[in-house]
Amino acid sequence: MSSSRRRRGTGPRRQPSPVASVFSWFYAILLAAPIYYLLMSSLKTNIEIFIHPFSLPTKWLWENFKLAWTTAKLGPALLNSVLICAVAIVVTLFLAVPASYAIARNDNRLSRAISKAFAAGFLIPPFAALIPTVLLAIQMNLFMTREFQMLYLPASALPLSVLLLTQFMRTVPNELVESAALDGAGHWHTLTQVFMPIARPGIVSVTILQLLTFWNEYLFSLTITGTAPDVRTIQVAVPTLVNDSTIYGILAAGTVLSLLPVYIAYSVMSKRMQEALVAGAVKG
Q: Which pTM was predicted?
């Protein structure tokens, strides 16, 4: 009877080894320690940060967040970052999803060449494209504007987005595609009703990955969008808190405020992210 239970997979589960548990907790502490340090630093004075870096504040300086918000003018910068990221993600998906569909549907020399062209985008380091990008922005009369950033970010994200989505769309069974064709479905109907539902985990993965990338982008935001308070992003605004007499508690508070929106977005989409990762692992 015990052998039949084992064959059915209903036997007792193996307990995780103590070594694995120790390493898991150690890894969790490594991830949590910088976050704890940042949060505690945002509520302390400079003296407390340097003398007692990991202790609780003797006085909780909540006004550090207000000072960071007003001094660096984080409100407009936060809205700029949200607007740029939202538009850039929409444009990225609008371009990457049809391109991935076309590459996945056509397994021929041309599609393979196009796929390799997207893969070649990984060979170009971002800083190498800085000067040509600045010259292009000037020629388009979009230098020091948010609009050019909304166009540049999707262009930089297309190689990874197309390659990831193509792999997901190649898992769509041919039977479903043939069935849709027999029902008279065109390319648009096949894409939206057959491919996109099955590739939804990949779309969610691309959305989250590019959200993190777009939100943390600094070099091109500083160079192309600029430091003017009405157009700069949150990543450009926070460093303005650094000066000859920097109050590190206020700087830490500004850093926390810059991380909070993307953390909330990730928390809301964490379940989708886990489903996407599991689905990608199974399909891989």
A: 0.84
